[in-house]
């Protein structure tokens, strides 16, 4: 008789467990290594006759070579050009994707700035998603995390 009672209790607990839906995080946990980058919030600056647009880069990661789990920096298009050149010098094993093209007319129009932002984000997501670069590129770490980053004083 006690065996039947035990069996009913076991069946009840099984039904209760089946009604709880697990979240993806409960099922799989946090990814072992992740690196997410987002390019957003373009701002155009005017200094006398010079005008330029810079972009906010937001980085979220749990990879140990990155000093910060979350960081935000601002970079200009010319910084991205330099960064791409440095990546090509740093590694010959990875085919570095192209940047969105240079714009010569209406480059400060909202739609042009947004197209460039989208292109820069695609570029950065491809680069940051490459396993060899995401864990072994010093220039990538500096470019997306270091607010004091200066292309003129950076040495590879």
From TrEMBL:
Q: Which ranges form a coiled coil?
A: none
Q: Which UniProt keywords apply?
A: Cytoplasm, Golgi apparatus, Lipid-binding, Membrane, Protein transport, Transport
GO cellular component, alphabetical, reads: early endosome membrane; Golgi membrane; retromer complex
Q: Give a GO biological-process term.
A: late endosome to Golgi transport
Its predominant location is cytoplasm
Q: Where in the cell is it found?
A: Cytoplasm; Golgi apparatus membrane; Prevacuolar compartment membrane
Q: Which residues form the PX domain?
A: 33-150
Highest taxon of source: Eukaryota
Name the SMART domains for this protein: PX
Topological type in the membrane: Peripheral membrane protein
Gene Ontology MF terms? phosphatidylinositol-3-phosphate binding
**Which Pfam families does its entry note?**
PX (PF00787)
Q: Which CDD domains match?
A: PX_Grd19
Q: Which family does it belong to?
A: Belongs to the sorting nexin family.
What does the function comment of this entry state?
Required for retention of late Golgi membrane proteins. Component of the retrieval machinery that functions by direct interaction with the cytosolic tails of certain TGN membrane proteins during the sorting/budding process at the prevacuolar compartment. Binds phosphatidylinositol 3-phosphate (PtdIns(P3)).
Q: What is this protein called?
A: Sorting nexin-3
């Amino acid at each position: 008789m006690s065996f039947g009672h035990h069996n009913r209790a076991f069946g009840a607990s099984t039904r209760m467990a089946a009604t709880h839906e697990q979240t993806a995080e409960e099922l799989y946990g946090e990814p072992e290594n992740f690196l997410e980058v987002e390019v957003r919030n373009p701002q155009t600056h005017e200094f006398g006759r010079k005008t330029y647009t810079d972009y906010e880069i937001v980085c979220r990661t749990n990879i140990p070579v990155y000093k910060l789990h979350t960081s935000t920096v601002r970079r200009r298009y010319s910084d991205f050009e330099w960064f791409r050149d440095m990546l090509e010098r740093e590694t010959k094993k990875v085919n570095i994707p192209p940047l969105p093209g240079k714009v010569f007319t209406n480059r400060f129009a909202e739609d042009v700035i947004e197209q460039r932002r989208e292109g820069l984000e695609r570029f950065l997501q491809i680069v940051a998603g490459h396993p060899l670069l995401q864990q072994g590129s010093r220039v990538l770490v500096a470019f997306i995390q270091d607010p004091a980053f200066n292309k003129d004083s950076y040495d590879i």
